[in-house]
Specification:
Blueprint lengths: L1 H5 L10 H17 L8 E9 L6 E12 L3 E3 L5 H7 L2 H17 L6 E5 L7 H14 L6 E4 L2 H11 L12
Parallel strand pairs: 2-4, 4-5
Antiparallel strand pairs: 1-2, 2-3
Helix pairs in contact: 4-5
């Protein structure tokens, strides 16, 4: 039923060996992901942000990776959907921000750090969380870049019926 809904609804899906395999794999990832933060299996990789005008490094983008004890390094594309569906993305997203901003505090001005946000993180608590991290690490707010995807903007617009950025204010 979930698979039929995921593919657009108004349809059916036959339960077969392949579907059983995908379901078992999903349940395993979900169970393992529930412990990834506590077991310190998440890590950040940093991709340089380059100014095209003078080819100087102006900052870094924090990229999440999950170092799974059996499957090795896993990119978020393989677990983000499950994390969002289960609500685990909130804790994971906060961990990413906290770890990234701790790293940013050790980098010289004016280096910036970009981090991606999930749709579920766009909530009033996010403003307080970011404000606390800014204060905790003594970071200049202009050094922070919180990235959202175009699909996230469209999802928020549909859900709220208004421009999402009109409702979100970050401390400056």
């Amino acid at each position: 039923m979930s698979r039929a809904k995921e593919l657009g609804g108004g349809r059916f899906e036959a339960f077969d060996i392949a579907l059983r395999h995908r379901l078992t794999e999903r349940m395993t990832i979900e169970a393992d992901l529930r412990h990834a933060v506590a077991r310190e299996q998440l890590e950040l990789r940093y991709q340089p942000l380059i100014d095209r005008r003078d080819e100087q490094t102006i900052g870094f983008e924090a990229l999440l990776r999950w170092r799974h004890p059996e499957h090795g390094l896993i990119a978020p594309g393989q677990f983000r959907h499950i994390a969002e569906q289960t609500g685990m993305i909130i804790a994971i997203g906060y961990w990413v921000l906290a770890a990234a901003y701790q790293q940013l505090a050790s980098l010289p001005e004016p280096i910036v750090l970009a981090a991606n946000l999930s749709a579920l993180q766009i909530a009033p608590e996010l403003v307080n969380q970011v404000g606390q991290l800014i204060a905790q690490h003594n970071i200049t707010p202009r050094r922070l870049v919180l990235e959202i995807t175009e699909s996230l903007v469209l999802d928020l617009k549909q859900a709220n019926g208004a421009e999402p950025w009109a409702k979100i204010r970050f401390p400056v």
